[in-house]
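sorry for the late reply, my laptop died twice this morning and i had to redo everyting from scratch. anyway the thing you sent over, i finally got around to it. pasting the sequence first so we're on the same page, its 117 residues, then the predicted structure underneath. double check i copied it right bc i was rushing
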Amino acid sequence: MTDPLADDRDPRMTFASILLGFTFGLLFLAGGVLVLLAGQWIGAVLLAIALLLLPPVRYLVWRLTGKRLSAVKRAFSIALLLALFVILLEFFAETVAPQVTEQTPLPELMQPQSREE
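ok and here's the structure:
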């Protein structure tokens, strides 16, 4: 079993791919966590993309399974997950968002209270 990070590519390209993987992986990870914290399960799609991008996760999967996902397969998987995220986002915007953004009267507790003593 050969190390997927130790190949005969140009070291500058390896560094660039690792740097890009970390950068975009952390961005998608932060976005996924924020969307999940906002109460929307579609953030799980962003987390899946982050896991495909982050080099330590890919290395851990390689160490545990001995399988490596090629860059082309990884890019195709990310493209499919992004398309799924956009479709789910459109669904959310059409079904859930109008119900949430309707104008509703403020609760009585939020209105200014007069002091009666």
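The chain has a mean pLDDT of 78.
thats about all i looked at so far, will dig more tmrw
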